[in-house]
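can u do me a favor
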């Protein structure tokens, strides 16, 4: 089997995912994912599609991450892994889609407006 590539995005985070057959090692930016993501919740988010499809120990995953914070990065990885698993076996798609792993969350940070302190916040109004 050759290498499978997929991209996952969330907020400002972009994850390029590379799947190859192996023993289940997940490396993020040349570090183990458990070292990269300190909390168990983020580690669980990364492995959700693998656990759902029972493929946690069949593929080695190498991930290049850019931008965003840890939560956005973890969810970007989840989307990328889900897309790669569909390329391997299209029968995984209904189960992954039912759990919401294939939806690219489109929410982005709203830009700051000129003359305002933040995107929507206003300075205090004084009538006199």
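np, heres the sequence
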């Amino acid at each position: 089997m050759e290498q499978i590539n997929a991209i996952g995005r969330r907020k400002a985070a972009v994850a390029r995912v590379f799947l190859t057959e192996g023993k289940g090692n997940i490396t993020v930016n040349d570090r183990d994912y458990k070292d990269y993501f300190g909390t168990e919740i983020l580690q669980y988010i990364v492995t959700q599609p693998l656990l759902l499809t029972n493929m946690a120990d069949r593929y080695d995953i190498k991930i290049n991450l850019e931008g965003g914070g840890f939560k956005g990065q973890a969810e970007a990885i989840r989307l990328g892994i889900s897309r790669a698993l569909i390329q391997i076996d299209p029968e995984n798609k209904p189960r992954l889609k039912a759990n919401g792993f294939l939806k690219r969350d489109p929410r982005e940070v709203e830009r700051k407006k000129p003359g305002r302190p933040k995107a929507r916040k206003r300075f205090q109004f004084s009538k006199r």
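The mean pLDDT is 94. hope that helps!!
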